[in-house]
Amino acid sequence: MEFRGAYTALSTPFANGEIDETAYRDFIEWQIEQGIDGLVPCGTTGEAATLTHEEQGRVIKICVEQAKGRVQVVAGAGSNSTKEAIALTQMAKDAGADAALQITPYYNKPTPGGLVEHFKAIAAEVSMPFVIYNVPGRTGLNLLPAHLKMIVDAVPETVAVKEATGDLNQAAQVIEQCGKNFNLLSGDDFTVLPLLAVGGVGVISVVSNIMPKAMSDMCKAFFNKDHETALDLSLKMAPVNRAMFMETNPIPVKTSLSIMGIFKDAQFRLPIVPLQDENKPKLKSVLKTAGIL
Asked: Does the annotation flag 122 for ligand binding?
């Protein structure tokens, strides 16, 4: 299975503490209209950590239904519990997702052998394409390229990695270890363009929640060898990328969606709290300068 271009790690709108299905469907439709290449419900940006399993299944189903096969849907389905990851992956498959985003088990800090057995166990119960998610800043574990190769060799379902270390040397080694046909996706908006240059094929992005066209166009420009346009778009997004991490993701991006009028307001579930008041003018200023407002 091939992944190519910009995939949005979708933010999940809430209303009165519950999933706002109408706003979510409208948001997905806007993303597709703006030219996004794929959608990723129930990732970190989608606040999957505070969704119940029932809610997670519903969010994925809504996304698949609304996408109507026009773009790929890569559903967040990982867990630090292998048994739980199997159940979530089955839910993603039943909903019709094209692939499952599988985070490396957080907190447990398994050995390389444990990682292999974790993904083998999921694939044995639910066979579908896997995108392995390497984000050591949240999991406490860095999936090194040699260990990723062990997983790829043992689990044929492993077709891609979302590499969120921001380490271009490590990203380049993924291609060296796993081959040029392996799907290397950026999970770090700051380094998308250079990651494409070392063999990457796209990005699972935070900033494309609010700038889907710019991120998609940048990837397309690079693939079309229009490197000047790609660089111009990368530079345009750079200050917005920084703003999206002025506080813990997804606080700034969901606040931005509210400011833009795409979400009615920016509701979060504890322990995530709203953007600090002193940061709101800074965020609005960045959005205005970028032409988003």
From this structure: no
For 221-228, the CB contacts below 8 A with 24+ separation are 222/193, 222/196, 222/197, 223/4, 223/5
| Residues pairing with 57 in the sheet | none
45 is in an annotated binding site: yes
Element (H, E) at 252: helix 251-259
Average pLDDT in the 12-21 region?
A: 97
For 123-133, the pLDDT digits (tens) are 999 999 999 99
pTM score of the predicted model: 0.96
Which strand (E) or helix (H) includes residue 293? none
The closest alpha carbon to 130, from 154, 114, 106, 113, belongs to 154
Give the C-alpha separation, 266 to 274, whole Å: 7
Q: Which residues are catalytic?
A: 133, 162
Strand, helix or coil at 134? Answer: strand
Query: Can you list the domains of the chain with their CATH numbers?
Result: 5-224 (3.20.20.70)
Q: Which residues have a Cβ under 8 Å from the Cβ of 19 and sit 6 or more positions away?
A: 12, 13, 55, 58, 59
Per-residue pLDDT reduced to its tens digit, 224-263? 999 999 999 999 999 999 999 999 999 999 999 999 999 9
